[in-house]
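User: Here's a structure from my thesis project, written as C-alpha cells. My advisor, Dr. K., wants to see whether a designed sequence matches the one we expressed. Can you design one independently, without my sequence as a hint?
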C-alpha cells in the first residue's frame, strides 16, 4: 500500500510539472513582445552614466524588478480571486502612465520650457559625487517605475493563461515566468550596455596574423557602433512605451475591437500585426498627449510642487 501511494504521489507530481511546463511555455510566448519592450526600455535607462557604474545600475534595477514581481504576483492572485473586475482598469491606468512618460520625453525635446518629470542634468553637467549618486538614484527609480508597469502586464497575461488551473499551478507558473523574465531581460541589458567594453578589449588584442587583425577590426567596429546602438535603443524604448501603453488601453476599451477588426479582416498575419501595432501607436500618442496636457493644466491650476 505504501509503495502504491508513493507511486501515485510521484505520478501526481509528474502530472503537475507537465501541466506547469506546458502553461509556462504558452505564457512565455504570450509575454515575449512585452519582454522585447522591457529590454529596450531598461537598456535606455542606463544611457548617460559612467561606464564603471553601468552594471551596478543594471543590478539595482534588476533587484527592484524582482521586488516588483514579488509584490505583483500575490497581488494579482488576490485581485483575481476577490475583485477580478479591477484588473483591467488598473492595467489601463498603468498603460496611460506609460504613454504619458513617452510623450513627456518627446515634449521635453521639442517644446521650450519645463515639463513634468523633466529629466535631470546629463552626466557632463554632474559636478560632484553627490550629484552623481543622485543622478544614478533617479535613473534606477525611473527604470523600476517603468518596470513595474511592464511587469504588471506580464503577470496579468500569465494569470489569464493559468486562471482555470489549480491554485498551486497558478503560483508555480507565475513565479517561474517572473524569475525567467527578470533574468532574461537584465542579463541582456547587462550585455548590451557593456558591448563597447567588449569591443575595446577585442580591439587591443595582440597578434599580427590575419585572424587577429580581423578580430581587432571587428572590435573597433563594435566600439564605433555601440553609441548608435544605444541611441537606437533610446528611440525604440520611447516607441515601446506608446506601443505597450496603447495596446493596454486598446484591449481595455470594448469599442476598439469593433474599430480594429474590419481593418485586420482578410489580411495576412504579418499585415494584421502591422495594423494592430500602428493602431496601438496612435492610441498611445493620443493618450500620452491627453495625460500630459491634463498634468500641465493641473500644475498651472494648483501650482507645481517644489
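Assistant: Designed independently from the structure alone:
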Amino acid at each position: 500500500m505504501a509503495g502504491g501511494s508513493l507511486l501515485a504521489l510521484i505520478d501526481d507530481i509528474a502530472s503537475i510539472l507537465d501541466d506547469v511546463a506546458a502553461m509556462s511555455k504558452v505564457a512565455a510566448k504570450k509575454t515575449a513582445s512585452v519582454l522585447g519592450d522591457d529590454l529596450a526600455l531598461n537598456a535606455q535607462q542606463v544611457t548617460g552614466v559612467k561606464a564603471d557604474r553601468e552594471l551596478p545600475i543594471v543590478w539595482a534595477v534588476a533587484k527592484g524588478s524582482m521586488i516588483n514581481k514579488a509584490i505583483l504576483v500575490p497581488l494579482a492572485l488576490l485581485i483575481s480571486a476577490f475583485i477580478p473586475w479591477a484588473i483591467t482598469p488598473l492595467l489601463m491606468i498603468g498603460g496611460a502612465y506609460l504613454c504619458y512618460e513617452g510623450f513627456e520625453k518627446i515634449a521635453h525635446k521639442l517644446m521650450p520650457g519645463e515639463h513634468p518629470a523633466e529629466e535631470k542634468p546629463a552626466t557632463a553637467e554632474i559636478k560632484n559625487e553627490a550629484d552623481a549618486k543622485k543622478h544614478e538614484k533617479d535613473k534606477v527609480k525611473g527604470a523600476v517605475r517603468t518596470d513595474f508597469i511592464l511587469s504588471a502586464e506580464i503577470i496579468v497575461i500569465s494569470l489569464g493563461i493559468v486562471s482555470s488551473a489549480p491554485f498551486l499551478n497558478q503560483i508555480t507558473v507565475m513565479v517561474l515566468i517572473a524569475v525567467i523574465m527578470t533574468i532574461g531581460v537584465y542579463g541582456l541589458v547587462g550585455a548590451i550596455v557593456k558591448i563597447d567594453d567588449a569591443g575595446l578589449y577585442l580591439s587591443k588584442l595582440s597578434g599580427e596574423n590575419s585572424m587577429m587583425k580581423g578580430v581587432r577590426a571587428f572590435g573597433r567596429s563594435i566600439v564605433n557602433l555601440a553609441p548608435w546602438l544605444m541611441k537606437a535603443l533610446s528611440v525604440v524604448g520611447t516607441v515601446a512605451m506608446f506601443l505597450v501603453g496603447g495596446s493596454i488601453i486598446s484591449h481595455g476599451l470594448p469599442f476598439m475591437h469593433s474599430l480594429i477588426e474590419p481593418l485586420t479582416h482578410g489580411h495576412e498575419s504579418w499585415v494584421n500585426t502591422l495594423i494592430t501595432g500602428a493602431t496601438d501607436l496612435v492610441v498611445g500618442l493620443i493618450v500620452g498627449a491627453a495625460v500630459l496636457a491634463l498634468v500641465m493644466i493641473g500644475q498651472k491650476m494648483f501650482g507645481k510642487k517644489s
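When you compare it with your expressed construct, this may help: DSSP finds ten helices and no strands in the chain.
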